Amino acid sequence: MSNFPLGDKEIKIGILGMTEGNGHPYSWSAIFNGYNWDYMKDCPFPVIPQYLSKQPPETFGIPGAKITHICCTGYAEREMAEHMAKASNIPNVVDDPLEMLGQVDAVICATDVGDEHIERCKPFLDAGLPMFIDKPLINKEEDLKTFVKWRKEGKKFITCSSLRFAKEYTPYHGSTYEFGKLMYICSPMSKKWETYGIHALEQMYPILGPGFVSVQNTGTFERTHVHLVHKSGCRVDIPQGIGMAGAGILLIGSAGSAYLNSMDSYFDFKTQLVKFVHWLRTGEEPFPFEETVELMKMVVAGLRSREEGGRVVMLDEINID
Questions:
Q1: Is the distance from CB of 63 to CB of 31 less than 8 angstroms?
Q2: 197 and 238 in contact (C-beta within 8 Å)?
Q3: Fewer CB atoms inside 10 Å of the end CB: C or N, the chain?
């Protein structure tokens, strides 16, 4: 069991993967450990070697922290884990995630299927290991109740979208006064609500802040269209679809507007992981857990609305007790 927070010790981190379409074990491990181009060039997610290769060598690494163990279960197994280890300089590959217990100080669950996170994370949280859990934390109300319960019991975990930290967006976090009263946000996103809806939500959430009231999803599995209402009166639209590209954020107020777009995935991911390590060392969270709870309620409400024919779902319908 780790003594949390971890202070100034050298931190050994295990990473879990993977799920279809999600290459985070490659990129996140490389941010910690650097990478071997002979293997990384064959990464099955071409965008990862593209943006990694643009970074100067000195940008890699987070002082005093390394990915030391990897295990892939579910979508990929030993062969993929071996390739990731060679590409991202990970010294140990294990077949069973539980082999990491007693070998690492913290764990990253780098899988983006929320329905799997209870099963994947429970052994490590029960063992007292602090975790970073990839977005979305959950897709079901019952799983949110479980994580809230675990939190109250003192289990240590954080989760978020990297787009919360996009350098193009952060100047507007809680600071849109030049636009007058903020009236409308459009936050388009790629892929499907179950995995990437949280990106669309969390890239705009710190701009408005807590206080979302309702969610309505009038789309389909393939083509999502979510409409949200904030207590301030601001309305938010999220058009999203499989095969669509993401397209930043449009902000419109009573006195002005702006279009913002995140262009540096490496910066977003590294900032996210640096904040994870800071939390491991100090116990200081990057933002309140209550924000995660509200965001997860929005994810659940979007799914519920779609399943119920586009009904407006009030956030206070989602019970966490």
A1: no
A2: yes
A3: C
Grouping H, G, I as helix, E, B as strand and the rest as coil, residue 271 is helix
| Residue of 253, 16, 238, 234 whose CA lies nearest to 111 | 16
E-state strands within 137-276: 157-159, 182-186, 189-190, 212-217, 223-230, 235-241, 249-253, 257-260
Rounded CA-CA distance 269/275 in Å is 10
172 CB neighbour count, 10 Å cutoff? 20
What is the dihedral angle through the alpha carbons of 142, 146, 148, 152, rounded to the nearest 10 degrees? 150
Going from the N-terminus, what domains does the chain have, and what CATH number goes with each?
Answer: 11-134 (3.40.50.720), 164-263+297-317 (3.30.360.10)
* pLDDT tens-digit profile, the chain (321 residues): 458 999 999 999 999 998 888 899 999 999 999 999 999 999 999 999 999 999 999 999 999 999 999 999 887 778 999 999 999 999 999 999 999 999 999 999 999 999 999 999 999 999 999 999 999 999 999 999 999 999 999 999 999 999 999 999 999 999 999 999 999 999 999 999 999 999 999 999 999 999 999 999 999 999 999 999 999 999 999 999 999 998 999 999 999 999 999 999 999 999 999 999 999 999 999 999 999 999 999 999 999 999 999 999 999 999 998
Which residues touch 168 (CB under 8 Å, ≥6 apart)?
248, 260, 261, 262, 263
- Where are any strands of DSSP class E within the chain? 11-17, 65-72, 92-93, 106-109, 131-133, 157-159, 182-186, 189-190, 212-217, 223-230, 235-241, 249-253, 257-260, 313-314
This prediction's pTM: 0.96
What is the pairing mode between strands 313-314 and 257-260?
unpaired
